[in-house]
Every structure is written in C-alpha cells, then in structure tokens.
C-alpha cells in the first residue's frame, strides 16, 4: 500500500526492515506496474515531448 501511495521504495524498505532495497523490489515490484507509465510521462514532460 505504501508503494501504491507513492512512498519512495527506500522509505518502504526501511520501514519493513529489509537490509537491502533489492529485497523490497524483489517482493513488491509487481504492485508497481503503473510506475513505468508515470516515469514515461514525467520524462516526456521533461523533454517537452
């Protein structure tokens, strides 16, 4: 829920007590598919595309 709410992965990692961010991403990356679209939109806006 934190990831879906837009909380940075590093903060979620710390809150969950994972020693490495790759653990958090490995377990929870599947709940973040919309992040790819958001990233593409942000990039497009940044380069005025």
Automatic annotation (TrEMBL):
Descriptive protein name: Integrase
UniProt keyword list: DNA recombination
GO molecular function annotations of the record: DNA binding
Example of a GO biological process term: DNA integration
Record carries keyword Lipid biosynthesis: no
Ranges where the Tyr recombinase domain occurs: 1-41
């Amino acid at each position: 829920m934190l990831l879906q709410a837009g909380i940075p992965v590093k903060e979620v990692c710390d809150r969950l007590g994972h020693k490495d961010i790759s653990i958090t991403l490995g377990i929870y990356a599947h709940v973040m598919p919309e992040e790819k679209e958001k990233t593409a939109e942000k990039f497009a806006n940044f380069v005025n595309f």
